[in-house]
Amino acid sequence: MSTGLIILLIVIAAVVVAGAATLILRSRAGHGGSALKRRFGPEYERAVALHDGDTKAAERELSERVERHGDLRERPLDAAQREQYADRWTAVQEHFVDSPRQAVAEADRLLGELAALRGYPDGGRYEEQLAALSVHHAEHVEGYRQVHRVARAGAGSGMSEDGPGTEEMRSALLGARALFDDLTSAESGRHRAAHGTGRPETPAGSRSHARSHAPWALHRSRPKES
To answer: Where is this region: Disordered (predicted)?
Structure first.
């Protein structure tokens, strides 16, 4: 083999290696910076705050979430399942009037169960489930985080006055509703977010979810403490 041909092969190999390296760097860049801000929205700002303003550390954490859960495909709910969960959520809302702590705890369990049914990690692994949900429902996952925190605080306080107040529990339940709507939608979280919808679709031939969307117990008289 001539010296000229050897040099040519070396140059070609170097070009191929350089091209592959560029593609890898671009792929990694796609998980960071502005791409992560667009994907995670308020979760990006929260991660940065938790890392004391260290954006690199926050982006590493968020990139790891994408690596672990980005390929997750939500399992669909059929019309009967969506109706069943809508009725259960309405019952939670109505229960809030007399037993706000129990209602918030039930909302927390219901979201964990629903997320698992859609294909997310089981609710028994709350932190992992929350991380997966944040990848696909970043705009509304804070509501789940809030209702889970309030539910645990309420359970720990028992009947004492040291637990969360009624208004805090009300706010938590209202915030959690957005994620519930996402998870009972016929579309995936990111696809729905792109279209700007905030309510689950009502399939043709099924009973309307109007009952669960109508003005409800949280907006009526002040509930009793439990």
So the answer is: 186-226
